[in-house]
Write a structure and sequence with these properties.
mainly beta, Pectate Lyase C-like, 2 domains, 21-stranded parallel β-sheet, 4-stranded parallel β-sheet
Length: 447
């Protein structure tokens, strides 16, 4: 057995044992959705001319290695091993039945030369690039129509070197929408674990039109002032689990999405069956978010055991006129937040439009939102819930919530409009639309 093959074998066994111990220690997890696969066939990026010196461009080596995996189709799939070193590369496509394994000290580093980044079509549920009309830059790690894909390792790093892209955004010189760090489309059976993601040009991890996705034991990092560097954005996807991770970025930590205005309505693919648990992080924007792009609908989301620090908004459900779509059966519980501008925000006036052709009569429906067991310290404003006059938010149910801030009149105010529901054991005392005397109907089963 080659030395590197023996090394990776021991590393895989260690990772699997650690994962098994963590599962036993933590109780409820989503590990069964996409189990870790052992691959008998193993290759190294070094076998294809990879050089980890931080200067040599390795795009060709990655493409050739993945071409080998795709076309030889070994039984049980193939593991691509990335040993310690810094591997500069442009974007490349993954393939089905593969594991991308980053050893300790391994860094896949994105080139900062935009000419090395191919363009891809806009997503059909968005109709255009999210930032600029037309095409968009391909993500660093990309895949379409895949199954049984694992990105894992020994906490190696995928570094997007996003500062050049952030500066183009700030200077308004972008010609196309910035690339994600990882985007998998129309794919199933995806497992991402034990990897550090940092400095993404745009959103970090974006599963879109996917099913059976597990993202766990990851660290996602970007400066607080990096624009639109969302951590994880499940988008028009189902049966997704995000757990046991640390995220500190410049935008929402986790944001569930499903398409943008008339394009998302026409595509009609909701996000549903999303579980988010044991996430810790910080951001000037939202901790747990739904939206604002929710035109295909977002249904059945559970977020629990969340710890948030230095936040803009702790829990944020956001949509807008023209979005359409239904946001329903969203449960957020067991949240601790410290130093937040706003604790809870549910609003129908958030987000922009892809073009002037959106339908102003396409009103979102927001109902069945349960938020319970929330404790906050140094929360400037407890809550803001603004529904739509022609589509009031209903079934907004708050229970056992204590959001403490510095003494002053602002902290004691909940601002609400066009909303109905109930609240019990909420401090500061919520707005008149949500009172414990209304603990009937749709909210009664939630207390």
């Amino acid at each position: 057995m080659n030395r590197w093959v023996g090394s990776i074998f021991l590393c895989i066994i260690s990772t699997l044992l650690l994962t098994s111990w963590l599962v036993a220690a933590e109780g409820e997890t989503c590990s069964g959705i996409v189990p870790m696969q052992y691959r008998n066939d193993k290759i190294s990026i070094l076998d294809f001319g990879g050089v980890g010196d931080g200067r040599t461009l390795n795009t060709k080596a990655f493409k050739e290695a993945i071409f080998r995996i795709q076309h030889l189709k070994r039984k049980g799939g193939t593991l691509l091993y990335i040993p310690a070193g810094v591997y500069l590369t442009g974007p490349f496509d993954l393939t089905s039945r593969m594991t991308l394994y980053l050893a300790r000290g391994a860094v896949i580093k994105a080139t900062q030369d935009p000419s090395q980044w191919p363009l891809v079509d806009p997503l059909p549920s968005y109709g255009r690039g999210r930032e600029r009309p037309g095409a968009r830059y391909m993500s660093l790690l990309h895949g379409d129509g895949l199954h049984d894909v694992i990105i894992t390792g020994e906490n190696g790093t995928i570094d997007g070197q996003g500062d050049v892209w952030w500066n183009m955004w700030r200077q308004r010189t972008l010609q196309f929408t910035r690339p994600h760090l990882v985007e998998l489309m129309n794919s199933r059976g995806i497992l991402i674990s034990n990897v550090i993601f940092k400095n993404s040009p745009f959103w970090n991890i974006h599963p879109v039109y996917c099913s059976n996705v597990v993202i766990r034991y990851v660290t996602i990092l970007a400066p607080a002032d990096s624009p639109n560097t969302d951590g994880i954005d499940p988008d028009s996807s189902s049966n997704v689990c995000i757990e046991d991770s640390y995220i500190s970025v410049g935008d929402d930590l986790v944001a569930v999405k499903s398409g943008w205005d008339q394009y998302g309505i026409a595509y009609g693919r909701p996000s549903h069956g999303i579980t988010i648990r044991r996430i810790t992080g910080s951001s000037p924007f939202a901790g747990i978010a739904v939206g604002s792009e929710t035109s295909g609908g977002v249904v059945d989301v559970l977020a629990e055991h969340i710890s948030l620090f230095n936040m803009g908004v702790g829990i944020h459900i956001k949509t807008n006129v023209g979005r359409g779509g239904m946001i329903r059966n969203i449960t957020v519980s067991n949240v601790y937040m410290e130093n937040a501008r706003t604790g809870i925000k549910i609003a129908g006036d958030v987000g922009d439009h892809p073009d002037e052709n959106f339908n102003p009569n396409a009103l979102p429906v927001v109902k069945g939102i349960k938020i319970k067991d929330v404790w906050g310290e140094k929360v400037l404003q407890a809550g803001l819930i603004h529904g739509l006059k022609n589509s009031p938010f209903s079934g907004i149910c708050l229970s056992n919530i204590n959001l403490r801030g510095n003494p002053g009149p602002r902290n004691s105010i909940w601002k609400c409009s066009d909303v109905s529901g109930a609240a019990i054991q909420v401090s500061p005392f919520p707005c008149a639309e949500l009172t414990s005397s209304q603990k009937t109907g749709a909210c009664s089963t939630y207390f």
